[in-house]
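queue> pop job 88
queue> type: inverse folding (structure -> sequence)
queue> payload:
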């Protein structure tokens, strides 16, 4: 997304930035919400509420009144996963599907300016962290950002649609320098305007610079900001975001002061001036913005930014300033409050581009909203930029190289990897069905639910599916089966002691639950450490493992227990299971119990030998 084309930014920012109660905001949003948003909200409400309604109905119909909530949670998991996966499956990582590689170069002009001012030269290594926080803040999108030499940076994007790639380009190409400034006017800033005119007249044609008007240590100084354009066309042109009437404007190429002819301001000035620009040898207009050094509000003064909705239900940006920033902001808007019928304009400048200049109607506080004719993607991009902060250096406005690449893994590797995963899953399901029969069916249902919930969650968090991620899924299946096996074997022990089916189920789950939680908790800690310190590829494995551990406990303990109780109450429960393992043990033990403890020294010695051999083989390789 090109942030320079953010449309109609903050048309009514002065009124909308005032703090409002939650009830008032809710009332405003409900008045202007669109039909599409109503449908979305109703659909979300249906997915969240209907499962519990149906669950309570089923519980009463089946004469199991205390199971309404259980049925509701299980139906919610099934419905939410099914709806999500019906609309979209997780995207594939670059190792399985290929993607796009972008190469950017640090802006040489900005680099030279930094060095001339006595600053330290920025390298591509310095951009990796800030860009990662901006593009992939959660670290789950498998986007690789790495230095490509000292002055270039490489971004590898997994299989993405063109719109998503364009959005990432916009995030990279914007430095993210946000600033609030006052649009220069002849009543308050005539001295500064005269100084700007003199500076323009003394500048040789064609050598316009972005130098300041005045000095930063003066009471006021000026900067030049180009006016942005709306994204959508009107009457064949993209309208300008800010009218030029009353502003000191200049030609950005030559630095000459502009006098837009009256005929170019007929009707809608934003459209008519945009049409007039098409007849000129320059494609933009710069206007003078006035900054008070003591009341300079910058992007770092933002404490919080998030997506929200305006009073018409359109996407907007909610923000909160820091305590120091809010104090300067209130002083700035108080000093420029209306004087009779005359008002001043507050400009919002992002990377030297004026996005809006609404009139200040009254002093403003620390909380507010940035509103306009935004799309959700535009708001999301702006929020990401504001949260990540300003980049230490800017890059070229276009990538110096852009290539579409195939999967980083060879076809044979991918085929064998996917084949091994499919075979292992199939064998596990077949074994569990044959060995545990009805209980195996319950385990398979739990496994399918587990897989669906993992994949649906990966869609929600934009986690691509990579080969390590698939390996994590297989490991999750094994752990889920292990949990079910523990439960089934405890049930078998209870049955062998002569317990009734209901008591065997209750005691079996009770005795196995503690062991399952302990075993999964240790693995969960390991997975969290892998995610915290691992590379992008290892994080793909860690994410699926974390989700699998959490959901396997839910399905193995909660879902399986509910199905067993339902089967027992309705009379179709069967606890017959194969006993091949115990039969083999009896054969080795001569019909009795196998004395493992008596073999302790031998097995310890054998284990030590194997460990030493393994270490030796590792060092030999």
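queue> result:
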């Amino acid at each position: 997304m090109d942030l320079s084309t953010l449309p109609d930014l903050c048309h009514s920012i002065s009124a909308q930035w005032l703090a409002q109660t939650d009830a008032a905001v809710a009332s405003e949003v409900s008045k202007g919400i669109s039909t599409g948003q109503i449908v979305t909200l109703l659909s979300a409400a249906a997915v969240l509420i209907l499962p519990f309604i149906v669950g309570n109905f089923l519980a009463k119909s089946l004469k199991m009144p205390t199971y309404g909530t259980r049925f509701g949670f299980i139906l919610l998991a099934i419905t939410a996963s099914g709806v999500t996966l019906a609309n979209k499956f997780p995207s594939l990582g670059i190792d399985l599907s290929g993607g796009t590689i972008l190469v950017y170069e640090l802006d040489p002009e900005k680099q030279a300016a930094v060095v001339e001012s006595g600053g330290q030269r920025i390298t591509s290594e310095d951009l990796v962290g800030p860009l990662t926080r901006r593009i992939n803040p959660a670290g789950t999108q498998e986007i690789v950002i790495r230095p490509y030499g000292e002055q270039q940076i490489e971004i590898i994007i997994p299989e993405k649609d063109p719109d998503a790639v364009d959005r990432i380009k916009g995030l990279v190409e914007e430095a993210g320098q946000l600033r609030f400034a006052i649009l220069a006017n002849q009543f308050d800033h005539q001295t500064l305007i005269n100084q700007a005119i003199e500076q323009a007249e003394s500048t040789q044609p064609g050598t316009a610079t972005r130098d300041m008007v005045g000095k930063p240590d003066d009471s006021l100084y000026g900067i030049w900001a180009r006016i942005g354009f709306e994204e959508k066309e009107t009457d064949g042109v993209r309208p300008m975001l800010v009218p030029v009437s009353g502003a000191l404007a200049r030609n950005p190429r030559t630095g000459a002061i502009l006098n837009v002819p009256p005929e170019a301001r007929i009707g809608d000035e934003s459209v008519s001036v945009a049409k007039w620009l098409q007849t000129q040898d320059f494609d933009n207009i710069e206007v003078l913005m006035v900054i008070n050094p003591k009341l300079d509000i910058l992007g770092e003064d933002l404490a919080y930014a998030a997506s929200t909705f305006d009073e018409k239900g359109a996407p907007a940006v909610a923000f909160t300033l820091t305590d120091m920033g809010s104090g300067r902001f209130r002083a700035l808007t108080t000093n420029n409050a209306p004087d009779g019928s005359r008002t001043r304009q507050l400009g919002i400048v992002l990377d030297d581009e004026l996005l809006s200049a609404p009139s200040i109607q009254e002093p403003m506080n620390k909380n507010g909203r940035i509103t306009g004719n935004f799309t959700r993607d535009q708001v999301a991009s702006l929020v990401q930029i504001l949260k990540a902060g300003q980049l230490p250096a800017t890059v070229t406005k276009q990538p110096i190289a852009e290539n579409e690449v195939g999967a980083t893994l060879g076809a044979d590797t991918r085929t064998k990897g996917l084949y091994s995963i499919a075979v292992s899953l199939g064998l596990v399901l077949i074994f569990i069905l044959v060995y545990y029969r009805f209980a195996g069916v319950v385990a398979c249902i739990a496994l399918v639910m587990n897989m669906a919930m993992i994949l649906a969650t990966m869609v929600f968090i934009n986690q691509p599916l990579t080969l390590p991620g698939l390996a994590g899924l297989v490991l999750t299946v094994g752990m889920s089966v292990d949990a079910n096996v523990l439960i089934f074997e405890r049930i078998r022990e209870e049955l062998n002691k002569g317990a009734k089916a209901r008591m065997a189920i209750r005691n079996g789950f009770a005795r196995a639950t503690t062991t399952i939680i302990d075993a999964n908790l240790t693995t969960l800690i390991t997975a969290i450490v892998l995610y915290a310190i691992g590379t992008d590829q290892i994080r793909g494995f860690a994410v699926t493992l974390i989700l699998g551990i959490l959901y396997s406990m839910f399905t193995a303990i909660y879902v399986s227990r509910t199905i067993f109780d339902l089967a027992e109450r309705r009379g179709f429960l069967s606890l017959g299971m194969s006993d091949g393992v115990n039969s083999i043990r009896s054969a080795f033990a001569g019909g009795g119990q196998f004395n493992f403890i008596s073999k302790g020294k031998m097995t310890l010695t054998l284990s030590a030998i194997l460990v030493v051999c393994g270490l030796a083989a590792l060092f030999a390789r």
